[in-house]
Design brief:
alpha+beta, two-stranded antiparallel ribbon, 2 strands
């Protein structure tokens, strides 16, 4: 269940554009079909935070390999992710 929560949070921040974060384009862009021109640039929370420059696909998210250099720093940020108190999660 915890892994599903992390996946959901990653999807929310990297793959899902939010209307409240979108930015207006200086000049409307044409679409490939016959629809009206695109007036807004879609933005995800990770893009707004400067963590990425594009909307990730689900395949890109699931296939992302965490760099080994980051894994070596997990001890330094362990306080951000406290261990689960298993006494409250036992049925």
């Amino acid at each position: 269940m915890e892994k599903q929560l992390w996946l959901t949070l990653a999807y929310y921040h990297f793959c899902l554009p939010h209307d409240s974060l979108r930015t207006e384009l200086a000049r409307p862009q044409g679409t490939r079909g016959n629809g009206s021109p695109r007036k807004w640039r879609l933005v995800t929370p990770a893009m707004a935070a400067g963590m990425t420059d594009h909307i990730w696909s689900t395949s890109e998210l699931l296939g992302y390999r965490v760099p080994a250099t980051f894994l070596d720093t997990l001890d330094a940020i362990e306080h951000v992710f406290p261990p689960l108190d298993l006494t409250h999660h036992v049925s």
